[in-house]
TrEMBL record, chain A:
<protein>
    <recommendedName>
        <fullName>NADH dehydrogenase [ubiquinone] 1 beta subcomplex subunit 5, mitochondrial</fullName>
    </recommendedName>
</protein>
<keyword id="KW-0249">Electron transport</keyword>
<keyword id="KW-1133">Transmembrane helix</keyword>
<keyword id="KW-0472">Membrane</keyword>
<comment type="similarity">
    <text>Belongs to the complex I NDUFB5 subunit family.</text>
</comment>
<feature type="signal peptide">
    <location>
        <begin position="1"/>
        <end position="15"/>
    </location>
</feature>
<keyword id="KW-0999">Mitochondrion inner membrane</keyword>
<feature type="transmembrane region" description="Helical">
    <location>
        <begin position="74"/>
        <end position="94"/>
    </location>
</feature>
<keyword id="KW-0496">Mitochondrion</keyword>
UniProtKB/TrEMBL annotation, chain B:
<protein>
    <recommendedName>
        <fullName>NADH dehydrogenase [ubiquinone] 1 beta subcomplex subunit 10</fullName>
    </recommendedName>
</protein>
<feature type="region of interest" description="Disordered">
    <location>
        <begin position="1"/>
        <end position="24"/>
    </location>
</feature>
<dbReference type="Pfam" id="PF10249">
    <property type="entry name" value="NDUFB10"/>
</dbReference>
<keyword id="KW-0472">Membrane</keyword>
<dbReference type="InterPro" id="IPR019377">
    <property type="entry name" value="NADH_UbQ_OxRdtase_su10"/>
</dbReference>
<keyword id="KW-0249">Electron transport</keyword>
<keyword id="KW-0496">Mitochondrion</keyword>
<dbReference type="InterPro" id="IPR039993">
    <property type="entry name" value="NDUFB10"/>
</dbReference>
<comment type="similarity">
    <text>Belongs to the complex I NDUFB10 subunit family.</text>
</comment>
Length: 190, 175
């Protein structure tokens, strides 16, 4: 009993010395040393009852860390567990679709190309059929193609009308030829 | 990865281990472990699995592989017909994906053959090796070196160059 308390007192003193030297001596490699450490600083306290010497372990607070981890687990499991249960129910009681050949004369709906029942449900009620997406892309392409075509023909028409001068564009207002004073050119010797 | 539908390619041939005469009276410890495994692991798992399959058999539903209609190729499209280009491009991409899966399946068959045969693989897997060599050469000829921006047009140009080389080689050979 007395030896035990002496041993613990020595351990406490050793721990205090190590902590102090650790704080002063900078970073060493505690893992390689492989020595067992008590967390934080230990200080022996009196008024120990019963067995052993009570130690007051001084260490940094883990209140915020544990609070964060508890909250994280709570909020993840709040929706995670119902979702997991639902997916388990679907997988066990509804099951995945079986692959089959397309029957003669039957055109499958676009959601019948998926295997898992949840994918089928999502494709059926939320997503557009891929044919619709394809047709929309082709419609956009068609509009843009017609726009380029129109623009090119407009440029060509403009070029030709400017060059030939016989179209409705490129008419410029010029002064009346009756206003022109030709007296400078009327005699050859000016 | 789609599953290979031809299971015959993966079947292990029946073992030809001869039945041996028992020469000792000590019972085979392997049978004990087999019965333990059977009762502890195999029977409960099979029971649960069959129960699940009974539940799922109540409402069966099927899924299909989509069959796409063939549309005119890029070589049959007129100049400036962007819709035709778009459909030919989509068809070319689907065909390239199909070809990639074909190469994957042939590779898997070769791997299965090697695993099955063990030390005899060099003799017994020659057909699969030959098939894989042909398939990869064909894939490389058609789609190789197009790069990440390869599309139907670059593939068509590559085919055109291949045909030109072929014609030149024929012309040189016939000279």
């Amino acid at each position: 009993m007395a030896a035990m308390s002496l041993l613990l007192r020595a351990a406490a003193a050793w721990g205090a010395r190590r902590a102090a030297s650790g704080a002063a001596g900078g970073v060493r490699l505690p893992w390689l040393a492989g020595a067992a450490r008590l967390p934080g600083t230990v200080a022996p306290v009196r008024h120990s009852s019963g067995h052993g010497k009570k130690m007051f372990i001084i260490k940094a607070t883990s209140f915020y860390d544990t609070r964060f981890l508890n909250l994280l687990r709570f909020y993840i499991f709040l929706t995670g567990i119902p979702v997991a249960l639902f997916i388990t129910y679907v997988n066990i009681f509804i099951g995945e679709a079986e692959l089959a050949e397309i029957p003669e004369g039957y055109v499958p709906e676009y959601w019948e190309y998926y295997k898992h029942p949840i994918s089928r449900w999502i494709a059926r009620y939320f997503l557009d059929p891929p044919e619709k997406h394809y047709e929309k892309q082709m419609a956009l392409l068609d509009i843009e193609a017609k726009k380029t075509e129109l623009r090119l023909t407009e440029l060509e028409a403009r070029r030709l009308m400017r060059h030939r001068g016989d179209g409705p564009w490129y008419h410029y207002e010029t002064p009346d030829k009756n206003l022109v004073d030709n007296s400078m050119k009327s005699t050859p010797d000016n | 990865m789609p599953e290979d539908s031809d299971w015959e390619a993966y079947k292990v041939p029946p073992t030809r281990t001869p039945v041996s005469e028992r020469t000792t009276s000590v019972p085979n410890p392997a049978t004990f472990f087999q019965t333990v495994f059977n009762y502890v692991v195999d029977a409960p798992v099979t029971f649960v699995r069959e129960w699940i399959e009974r539940q799922q058999a109540k409402n069966k539903f099927y899924y299909y592989h989509q069959k796409f209609r063939r549309v005119p190729d890029l070589s049959e499209c007129l100049e400036g017909d962007y819709l035709c280009f778009f459909e030919a491009e989509a068809q070319w991409r689907r065909d390239r994906m199909v070809d990639q899966e074909i190469v994957e399946i042939v590779r898997e068959r070769l791997g299965a053959c090697k695993q099955r045969e063990g030390p005899n693989q060099f003799q017994n897997c020659a057909k699969e090796v030959e098939l894989l060599a042909q398939v990869t050469k064909a894939y490389q000829d058609r789609y190789g070196d197009l790069g990440v921006h390869g599309n139907a047009r670059t593939c068509l140009m590559k085919q055109k160059h291949r045909m030109m080389e072929e014609r030149k080689a024929q012309a040189n050979a016939s000279q």
